[in-house]
Design brief:
Number of strands: 9
Low-confidence stretches: 29-35
Number of domains: 2
Largest sheet: 5 strands, mixed
Mean pLDDT: 81
Shape: elongated
Helix content: 25-40%
Structural class: alpha+beta
Distance between the termini: 59 Å
Strand content: over 45%
Radius of gyration: 25 Å
């Protein structure tokens, strides 16, 4: 009889360990899929110049930030794309009739959902911008880009995660 109690107790402990192991495995897989899953970002290409005045209505959310970093009188939206980035899988955008290729890659995730992105901009087969940024949830990063006629290009990258 004592052997059965010990055996029954051993089975109970083994079942409990199995349930805990399975629970932790499921939790780990869930957290890993969130950490290494897709990151949704909004990528805007903006033409800034001192020819004319005004801000494109779709840029109102970043107008203050644009004004504090850049000293232009006119901001026009050229491209607005939503990208679903997976780790180490580049996503591309064409701007200005395919003359400029913008490649964005999710390099990794850091504590509290901070995404590390690599931004490459190419024109006529050569890189004109190659940088890395960390994008926090709910934030926008502005990157000054190449000259364009009488102005410059600015890239606004916003997190949607």
């Amino acid at each position: 009889m004592a052997f059965r109690r010990t055996g029954g107790r051993d089975i109970f402990i083994m079942k409990r360990k199995a349930i805990l192991t399975i629970s932790f495995s499921i939790l780990f897989l869930f957290l890993a899929s969130v950490a290494f899953g897709q990151v949704q970002t909004r990528f805007r290409v903006i033409r800034a110049s001192n020819v004319g005045t005004g801000v494109d209505p779709s840029l109102r959310d970043v107008h203050e930030q644009l004004g504090s970093l850049f000293s232009f009188t006119s901001y026009r939206l050229l491209t607005d794309e939503t990208l679903h980035l997976s780790p180490h899988q580049p996503a591309s955008i064409s701007a200005r009739e395919g003359q400029i290729i913008i490649e964005t890659t999710l390099e990794g995730m850091h504590g509290r959902g901070v995404a590390e992105l690599r931004i490459r901009v190419g024109r006529e087969g050569r890189n004109i911008l190659n940088t890395q940024v960390r994008l926090s949830p709910g934030r926008t990063v502005l990157i000054g880009g190449p000259k364009l006629r009488e102005g410059v290009i600015i890239y606004a990258i916003s997190s949607i995660f």
